[in-house]
Amino acid sequence: MDSAFIPEGVKRCPFPQFLAGLGLAGVVLAWGIFAMLLCWLKGLNQTNMNDSYGFALWIWADLAVIALGGGAFFSGFLKYIVGKDELKNIINFAVLIGFICYSSALLILAIDIGQPLRGWFIFWHANVHSMLTEVAFCLSCYFGVLTIEYIPLILENRQIDKIPFFHNLSHNMHEVMAVFAATGAFLSFFHQGSLGGIAGVLFGRPFAYREGLLVWPWTFFLFTWSAAAYGPCFTIFLIKLLEKITGKKLVKDNVIDLLAKISGWMIFTYIFAKIIDTWYWAVVTVQSKGQTLMDFYDDNMFYGLWILVAEIVVGGIFPALILLTKKGRNSASLLWAAVILACLGVCINRWVMVLQVMAIPVLPFEDWALYYPSWQEIATTILPVAYGVILVMISYRYLPIFPQEKELNPIESH
Amino acid sequence: MKIDRRCFLSLGIGAAAGTALSPLPWKLMDDASIWTQNWPWTPVPPDGEISYTDSTCTLCSGGCGITVRKIDDRVVKIEGRENHPVNNGGICVLGLSGTQLLYGPTRVKSPMKKINGTFQKITWNQALSEITEKLLTLRAEGRSHTVAAIAGSSRGTVSALLQRFLTAYGSPNFYCQSSIEDSFSLSHIQPQNNKTIPGFDLENADYVLSFGTGIIDGWGSPVRMIQASNAWKTKNLKLIQVEPRLSDTAARSDEWLPSKPGTEAILALGIAHVILQESLYDQAAIDYHSEGFVTWRTAVLGHYHPDKVAEITGIDAKTIFTVGREFGQAEKPVAICGRGKGNTPVSVAEMSAIHALNVLVGNVNKKGGVFTLPEPNYISWPEISFDTKAETSLQTKQIAEGGLLHRLPSAINEAEDSVTLLFVADANPCYTLTDTKEVIRAFKKIPFKVSFSSYMDETAKLSDLILPNHSYLERYEDVPVTSGLRNPVIGLTKPIVNPLFQTKHTGDVIISIARAMKGSIESSFPWKNYYQCLKNGLGQHWNPLLNNGVVEITYIPEFEEIPRFAFQIPNDKPQVLLEGNENKMDLTLIPSDSMRLSSGYIGAPPFMMKTIPDTILKDNNTLVQIHPKTAEKLELKQGCYAILKTPRDEKKVKIHLSQGIGEDIISFPRGLGHTAYDSYLAGKGINFNELIGPVEDPFSGLDVAWGIRASLIKA
Amino acid sequence: MTQEYRKEKKYGMVIDLDRCTGCGACMVACMAENNVPFRDNETDKLKSITWMRIYQLTNGKSYPNEEICYLPRPCMHCEGHNGHSPCVTVCPAVATDYDRETGIVSQIPTRCFGCRYCMAACPYHARYFNWWDPVWPEGMEKSLSPNVSPRMRGVVEKCSFCFHRYQLAYEKAASEDRRELRENEYQTSCTQACPAGAITFGDLINKNHAVYKIKKDPRAFRLLERLKTNPKIYYLSSREWVRRAGDNYHPEEETGKIKSHQ
Amino acid sequence: MFPFISFEWVWDIEHVVFMGGLWYAVSILGIGMAYCIIKAAIDKKEV
């Protein structure tokens, strides 16, 4: 039925099955959109956020998807700047995931702010000292870059490609893509960093506050680093997941292996830096504020040292060690474990840097503030997932996302 | 030109690009944000000319001077009046929230009549003729004495007018809520047929021994007391607080004596024992001010040795000795009583035991001490004229024996048709009287109830006719203040704004009813209107009052006019016992007062509700305070629900653990649990008065219940 | 000192906790002055807008040795280092600013777009978000003051040291050809209302103002001084445990002895 | 945001560096895209 649009030489599921899948994701999407509209029309009283939890689930989701979407900029950086050419087989997908993650992040931000119609004030009345301004600028610009990187992919659709203008445009864009990618990497570096800076500059919150270099707290660099380290893991995870779902091999092992190895090194070095940072912070920064490490992990119902262990050891050291060893990378189950743990690790890190910061009392006479999200918050947080699934489904069906798919899955002529 | 897909696509993209480059989206974006900055549903208060007018607050018995800020004819803020003898610029949460009462949804906007269970608007003419007819019929039937009235206070012209009307009409059934002043008066021998009121020169005292008095929790004139307590801080004066609970006053005192609840009188006698034993008393002053000292002295020395007192009160003997000595040796020591806000009387025995300390050390009727003052009868009106009807029906016995309001509900419940018509002015008995369930049952038995309330309170809601008074910011009225001051003060409320609704001054309503009754009743009310009645009644005080907004009544009594304190020989158990079976209910429930809770007849406005901590009210639940050990015994946890049972009622409460209360005591916030007023107040928490009932002082008959036995069971 | 220097003011407060009775008058005075909205259920204190909030501190001892201290907490109007208060630096849209003329941290609700970053930055929880549209029951909007615009849903608000009072006082002074305000001409609503006289307000760097002297009282401390927020609210307490509750201390450290940054 | 236009603009190092970086990035993207589109249009005509 839609075979004219499906890339040549690949096999896709029957159209009704595709539609059913779309419908399923669509229902979840509709639920999310309903919640989103509630938040916009009735206001943020639809959430369980409060004056102690000005930042809550959404901001975590925002930071998490941006970290996970970091695979796009880092693979782009590796391919176009460093020159790891094998990654061209994965870059399309990385760009797609990045596009989904970043558009979701922007949407979440638009729901999260109390006055969405005034959101553009962040540009117009920009305060250049605010990390959030930096985030907004770099995030929107980088989203522009991702769109630019995604457009040629769309233009490669069989039908669109027939139009000479689009064919040429696609060609031209590929030619200058390195420039765009470089700009993207530059922007990414800053917005990933400034997202880290958001927590790090809070000198009123000893749990979040970090010393740093010039105007940038250490979390600035740690966030960039961790996004570059963990983002590719998420890309690998999704490729593996897609391969499982489609029952096809989509990317050659050597490509995955290369990305996994780079990711492993990145995680390893990141977690090393993170441990030093945590140690310095616990021993010097926190002490100077009259507090001790255990003030942040004690005397409440949820946050214990387990979360620090989960983030650094389980979600950091473990996946790093697996990905660094050839054996680990070659074992399907270990690779699965590594990428899942890594994704969890970075998500925990973002959680801690948002929600635990809010939970910890700073005034000695205040108590821990614990919070659970309302269904509207959960629905709007799941919304991007449904949206992502739909976009992946459509893109996978109609666009040549995986250049190696044809070669790996030859169709017997009919 | 053929419109194919290709063309369509290009057109679409072109259009999008064109629109994006045009000013349109930017203009829309800008307009949208400007719209959010001016949302039509977010009010924009109109600007106008600022003016300030002085008046007097009537929301509690404190009588603070206020300065009202207006923008054109709108009241926007109430502030404390500078240099006012009562509050000198200070103000409390209730006084500050007054604008919300003026403009709030609880106002009764016109006369209302209950028809088939719902209120309907009627005109003033209809309302007045209806009430007049009722009164005339009752009088013709010879049932004048079945008309009763409840007033919030026994003082002031409006209360006096109502009482005057009842008297002229021929009913002896005029009631007011008893107060701690009654206890004080009864512990003195009156030289004339007049009440004795206490005057406290607390600012000049140098040692304050408080028996449960909520000095900064709303006792006396609250703002003035807070100011006095700070004057003590500056002067390094010692404040000793005797109280079972760590109230704000106790927390602020120099020494908190956590006595067992209800044993205050015994502790006072123990302290007296020390003073007597160590001869720290002032014999000359005792002779001058009191009677019956010698026998009393023997009794106290015989029965109240600190060791024994320590056992009963839980305060160790050493402390009793120290306090006794300090009190006896201080230059101007003052002992005061009246639990919490002091709105409920204490037994005469307790009052005597405590005030005896002041008399012993001779700190009576002198600077820094307690004064015995005559009731300030400042209103001078012509004599009431009676017809024979009135004269005879005035001879009937009061429905509630001794004129005690707390006896009224049971009297009504016991006898049919004892009250056929009830007026309620400046009072909310269906909320403030204890054993509220019984009160409401009695209230419902009365065929015709008339409320003068400005607000739809519990009593107004249950009435058959509401004749709404102007709010205190819309009317003239004298505001007599005696509570805790050195000298009585008369304040004046003034109309700050024109009446917003179709309300009428209660004074005017009473006068017009009286005039419509004709005959001797009419001639007892020879005034055109309330304003004239007020002006004439205040005589010499009127001009200074009108000019300054406040006058102080300084009166130095002659020797023979001074009421003399009567030393009461303490019996074996001077403490008031609690209602309830000790074996079935082994906990003691006591109320707790706070400045942020309004427990009087005015319910808390929204601003005030905002200040209530979540350890007292959470959602619609009242939290009771208990000691962690009590909780452990009862298997209760912080924040859990429990059923609180007393002999009068049972309620579901939440538990709050506190180290500020002794074991086996439950502290319950007073002032919540309204069922009327607005959605900001109604249904929030539980009314303490529902859980407790009257316990009479055998000597005076006053309701002196200070708590009740209770049990707590995990819900 | 030059004329230029004299023009700069640092308005601040000294709150005497020995005098404060916790009566709540400052809270309501603030609400009434600043058109603070209210709702049916205000018992969730994490969603209840109280620019001035009173904390109840306890010494943590058991009955009958427990002690209570009330601590009123307005916005601290932190100066941070050279005007870099925790919230001002993070606001992406300059909706909150440190006014160098008065030392007041301003908040412009029409500029704010509700990102709540400033709330995350403030360790004192002095900032409040309008989770709901403010609604006044019919008729009660008459009690609103025109000097302070009611805030719409979705924006952050906080104590402004009654900045409108400063402006009104300044206008009045200007009309009388005076360049400087007298101490009593500009006082906040809470200061004025406090029946305990616990709050003193004035210019912290003006030698003639009461606060200038009182802040040097040995009982004085500020909240969380170690965080270098440099707040302009000083507290006085003669009780050591109260002063110690004002900051985080290691067990071996002596109360008030930590060298703080200026 | 815009020098000369926005009233918040201050000629200090922060604004110059931060906004400079921003406008630099935006220019690259804008010029790049413009180049691609125009070239594509021209190429199309030549086909």
Summary tags:
heterotetramer, B: about 725 residues, alpha/beta, Rossmann fold, Dimethylsulfoxide Reductase, domain 2, 4 domains, seven-stranded mixed beta sheet, about 35% helix, about 20% strand, C: about 260 residues, alpha+beta, Alpha-Beta Plaits, four-stranded mixed beta sheet, 8 helices, 10 strands, about 20% helix, about 15% strand, disordered N terminus
What does this structure look like?
The complex is a heterotetramer of chains A (414), B (715), C (262) and D (47). With 414 residues, chain A is mainly alpha-helical. Chain A is 70% helix and 1% strand. Chain A has helices at residues 15-42, 57-68, 70-82, 88-112, 121-124, 131-155, 164-200, 218-246, 253-288, 305-324, 326-330, 332-359, 375-398, 405-408; strands at 212-213, 216-217. In chain A, a hairpin with a 2-residue loop joins strand 1 and strand 2 (216-217). The longest helix of chain A is centred in the middle third of the chain and has 37 residues, at 164-200. Chain A is globular and about 70 Å long. Chain B is of the alpha/beta class and 715 residues long. In chain B, 34% of the residues lie in helices and 20% in strands. In chain B, the strands form seven sheets. A seven-stranded mixed beta sheet of chain B has the order 5-4-18-17-16-6-7. A seven-stranded mixed beta sheet of chain B has the order 24-25-27-26-29-23-28. In chain B, strand 6, helix 6 (157-169) and strand 7 form a beta-alpha-beta unit. In chain B, helix 10 (264-277) crosses helix 14 and helix 17 (408-414) crosses helix 19. The longest helix of chain B is centred in the first third of the chain and has 17 residues, at 5-21. By secondary structure, chain C is an alpha+beta fold. Chain C has one domain (3-157, 188-244): Alpha-Beta Plaits, CATH 3.30.70. The longest helix of chain C has 13 residues, at 163-175. Chain D has one domain (1-47). Chain D is 72% helix and 0% strand. Chain D starts with 12 loop residues before the first helix and ends with a helix. The model of chain D has no long low-confidence stretch (mean pLDDT 80). The interface between B and C is large, with 74 and 64 residues.
